[in-house]
Design a protein that fits this description.
The chain is α/β, with parallel strands linked by helices and about 230 residues long. The chain has six helices and 15 strands.
Length: about 230
């Protein structure tokens, strides 16, 4: 896999230092990388508006005009997969990245021994997010990332796959389709399998998903679903 990595820091020496560590990481793992440097958030966002395919971002938090935190919030609006690592000179910023699901924080000066395992973790997360299922519709066969599936619904001899963008309807049983899923999904009802990460509310009678849809919970299944959700979180 080729990783597109962005380094955004107003300190040129820091950018070069991070570039060297990333190059060593790529050589060690024998992976291809495309690394781009930016001196400020504005420069990054100008290019990002045209190319939103970054895999990993190393962001300085304390930058003039637009901070690394604000930059990350902008990126997260349409990119949930990118792995964000914050670089900071101050420990007090550690709580600021919660809303953007930051992978890690590193304190300057960045030590290679600390950044290398973070890059390993980012690569592992990206590999997981690429896991997919094959959805066969009347018109085409679609390779659908697991990351995009909110829930799956049985409908007679079909299943309806509800995703973050659209829905797909294919001829299959729910149990057969569920064989392609992993432990981040849970069968909450005989006719529904839900992605644990997209559950926003659970009661003894229903579950509310991130898209606002409400799906039923089988009688007696609340405790199991709740336990699975707690374990996932």
């Amino acid at each position: 896999m080729k990783y597109k990595i962005g380094i955004c820091d107003d300190d040129a020496a820091q950018r070069e230092h991070l570039m060297a560590i990333v190059a060593a990481w790529a050589k060690r793992g024998r992976c291809l990388t495309e690394v781009k440097q930016y001196s400020d958030a504005k420069a990054f966002l100008f290019e990002y508006s045209e190319e939103k395919d970054f895999d990993i971002l190393l962001l300085d938090i304390e930058m003039p005009q637009i901070s690394g935190i604000e930059l990350a919030k902008t990126v997260r609006r349409d990119n949930t997969a990118v792995q964000i690592v914050f670089i900071t000179g101050y420990y007090e910023y550690f709580g600021d990245g919660f809303d953007v699901s930051a992978l890690h924080y590193l304190v300057k000066p960045v030590d290679a021994g600390k950044l290398l395992p973070v890059l390993d973790k980012a690569a592992a997360n990206l590999s997981y997010r690429q896991r997919s299922v094959l959805v066969s519709t009347q018109d085409a066969e679609v390779k659908l990332p697991l990351e995009d599936i909110i829930y799956v619904e049985a409908e007679n001899v079909y299943v309806v796959v509800h995703t973050v963008r659209t829905t797909y309807r294919m001829r299959s049983t729910l149990s057969k389709f569920a064989e392609q899923l992993d432990e981040t999904f849970f069968k909450v009802h005989r006719s529904y399998v839900a992605a644990l990460k997209y559950i926003v509310k659970i009661t003894r009678g229903s579950i509310t998903m991130i898209n606002g849809d409400q799906i039923p919970v089988s009688r007696g299944m609340y405790d199991q679903v709740h336990a699975a959700l707690v374990k996932y979180l």
